[in-house]
Specification:
There is one protein chain. The protein is of the alpha+beta class. The chain has 2 domains: about 240 residues, Aminohydrolase, N-terminal nucleophile (Ntn) domain (Glutamine Phosphoribosylpyrophosphate, subunit 1, domain 1, 4-Layer Sandwich), CATH 3.60.20; about 190 residues, Rossmann fold, CATH 3.40.50. About 30% of the residues lie in helices and about 25% in strands. The chain contains 17 helices and 23 strands. The longest helix is centred in the middle third of the chain and has 15 residues.
Length: about 475
C-alpha cells in the first residue's frame, strides 16, 4: 500500500462561447497526478448541460473524437478522481449532474467530509435515494435542499457550508454562474486565474492555471465563496475566519505538483527544505543521494545541498503506465515496483546510497525499492523520509483509513529499517513540519493525532463494501 493522490477540480467561464471542454481537458491533464481512476467534464451550452465522464486517465476518456463532439459553451467544470471514499465505479465519476426544481447544477469536489456518514443517514431517513457512494452526492443533496429555500445558488451553498464539516474544495456550475468554495479550514487547495482574453479558470493547483495559459491571480481563502458571472467576480467571506486554517501538510509533501504554489508557498521549495532538515537531523556518510520519483526528487536535492553529498538519478519511473496497465491477475504474479521503477546500476553500484522518499505506509513498497537497489549493486542504503511516521488515520481525503495498516504503529524505527532491508532509517521530525508550510497553520493529524474536527463515529470509507 502507498499513499494515493487526491482528487483534482477545474472550472472555466468565458465571456462568450468558447472551447471550454478543450480548456478543461488541458486543465485536468495538468491535474492528472491528483487522480488517475476516473475523470469527467460537464459543459454548459446555453443552459443545456452536456456531460462526459468515465473510468480511466484524461487522455483515455477524452479522445480526439470525444472532444470534437463536446459543444462550445461559456462554462464548464471538470474533475479527476482517486476514490478515497466510495468504490471505483462509473457511478462515482464526477462532476455530479443535478436537475432540481429551480434548475440545474454540476458539482466537482475534492476532499472528504468528516460528518458524511451522519449527513447521509439523515438524508436517507428523509427519503433521499443515493446513486453513488461518494461524499460529493451528499454535498449535492444538501445544496439542492437549501436552494429550494434561497434566492440564489450561492446563498444555498453558503447555507450548506454551515452544515458540512471536514474537507471540501468545490467548483459548482449553474446555468448562469461558476462558483468556487473552500471549506473554512482550507484543508484542500483551490485557486483561480484569468487569461488575456477574459476567461476565468479555477483549479486545485496553480500548475493547471498556468497549463491553460492563464495568469494566476490568487488562492481562494479558507471559507471563501467566489461567484463568477455576468457581474464579474464576487467574493463572499461570511465563512472566512470561522475556523482555524488547517491546510493538509501532505499537499506539500506528496500530493501537489512541484511547480505549484499553494497558499503562497512553493511546493518545490517546501520539499527542498524538508530534504535539508533531513540532512541536519539524520546525517550519514554516503557517496550518492537519490530520490524516489517523483515526490522524493526535490527533497533529495535539499539533502544533497545541505550534506554536500552529490545528488544523482538512481531510479527511473516508467511514466507511461496508468493504473489500468496491470490486471488484478497479473498483479498477483508480478512485482509492480519493478514494472514502474528501474534502478540505474551505474549510479548506485558499490555506492553508499541515501534514498529519499516521501512516506512509508505499510513498508511493502519501500522494501521492494530497497531490494531493487540492492540487486543493482548498492553497498549501503540509508533511507530518509520527508515526512514523519504515519500513526493515525485521516478523515479529510488522504487514503489512510486504518491504524492496523500503518507499520509505524507496530514497530520502532530500527525495526522498520530491518523490515524494509535498509541499513538505517530516518524520518522528518514532526516538530519540523512547520518549515514546509512557511510557518503557516496546517493539519498534521495523520502524524500527530491532533484532529481539527470531531472524529467521525463511523470511520468506514464505504459502508457498502465488506
Amino acid at each position: 500500500m502507498s499513499i494515493h493522490e487526491e482528487c483534482g477540480v477545474f472550472g472555466v467561464i468565458a465571456p462568450e462561447p468558447a472551447d471550454v471542454a478543450g480548456i478543461s481537458y488541458y486543465g485536468l491533464y495538468a491535474l492528472q497526478h491528483r487522480g488517475q481512476e476516473s475523470c469527467g467534464i460537464v459543459v454548459n451550452c446555453g443552459g443545456v448541460f452536456v456531460s462526459h465522464k468515465d473510468l480511466g486517465l484524461v487522455s483515455e476518456v477524452f479522445t480526439e473524437d470525444i472532444l470534437s463532439r463536446m459543444p462550445k459553451g461559456m462554462i464548464a467544470v471538470g474533475h479527476v478522481r482517486y476514490g478515497t471514499t466510495g468504490s471505483t465505479s462509473r457511478n462515482n465519476c464526477q462532476p455530479i449532474d443535478v436537475n432540481h426544481r429551480k434548475g440545474k447544477m454540476a458539482l466537482a469536489h475534492n476532499g472528504n467530509l468528516s460528518n458524511a456518514a451522519e449527513l447521509r443517514n439523515e438524508l436517507e431517513l428523509s427519503g433521499a435515494i443515493f446513486h453513488t457512494t461518494s461524499d460529493t452526492e451528499t454535498i449535492a443533496y444538501i445544496i439542492t435542499k437549501e436552494r429550494l429555500k434561497t434566492a440564489s445558488i450561492e446563498d444555498a451553498l453558503s447555507n450548506a457550508m454551515y452544515i458540512l464539516d471536514g474537507a471540501y474544495s468545490l467548483i459548482l456550475m449553474s446555468p448562469q454562474k461558476l462558483i468556487c468554495a473552500r471549506d473554512p479550514y482550507g484543508f484542500r487547495p483551490l485557486c483561480f486565474g484569468r487569461t488575456a482574453d477574459g476567461i476565468y479558470v479555477a483549479a486545485s493547483e496553480s500548475c493547471a492555471i498556468k497549463a491553460v495559459g492563464a495568469q494566476f491571480i490568487r488562492d481562494v481563502e479558507p471559507g471563501e465563496i467566489l461567484v463568477f458571472g455576468k457581474n464579474g467576480v464576487i467574493s463572499r467571506k461570511e465563512h472566512c475566519s470561522r475556523k482555524e486554517k488547517r491546510l493538509c501538510i501532505f499537499e506539500y509533501i506528496y500530493f501537489a505538483r512541484p511547480d505549484s504554489v499553494i497558499d503562497g508557498v512553493s511546493v518545490h521549495s517546501a520539499r527542498f527544505r524538508a530534504g535539508k532538515v533531513l540532512a541536519k537531523t539524520h546525517p550519514v556518510k554516503a557517496d550518492i543521494v537519490i530520490g524516489v520519483p517523483d515526490s522524493g526528487l526535490d527533497a533529495a536535492l535539499g539533502y544533497s545541498d545541505e550534506s554536500g553529498i552529490p545528488c544523482g538519478i538512481g531510479l527511473i519511473k516508467n511514466k507511461y503506465i496508468g493504473r489500468t496497465f496491470i490486471s488484478p491477475e497479473q498483479s498477483k504474479r508480478l512485482d509492480q515496483v519493478k514494472i514502474k521503477l528501474s534502478a540505474i546500476e551505474e549510479t548506485v553500484k558499490n555506492k553508499r546510497v541515501v534514498l529519499i522518499d516521501d512516506s512509508i505506509v505499510r513498508g511493502t513498497t519501500s522494501g521492494r525499492i530497497v531490494k531493487l537497489l540492492r540487486e543493482a549493486g548498492a553497498k549501503e542504503i540509508h533511507m530518509r523520509i520527508s515526512s514523519p511516521p504515519f500513526l493515525y488515520p485521516c478523515f479529510y481525503g488522504t487514503d489512510i483509513d486504518s491504524q492496523e495498516h500503518l507499520i509505524a504503529r507496530k514497530y520502532t524505527i530500527p525495526e522498520i529499517a530491518e523490515i524494509i532491508g535498509a541499513d538505517s532509517l530516518g524520518y522528518l521530525p514532526v516538530e519540523e513540519l512547520k518549515i514546509l508550510a512557511g510557518n503557516r497553520d496546517f493539519c498534521s493529524a495523520c502524524f500527530s493525532g491532533d484532529y481539527p474536527t470531531a472524529v467521525p463515529a463511523d470511520t468506514r470509507k464505504n459502508r457498502f463494501e465488506q
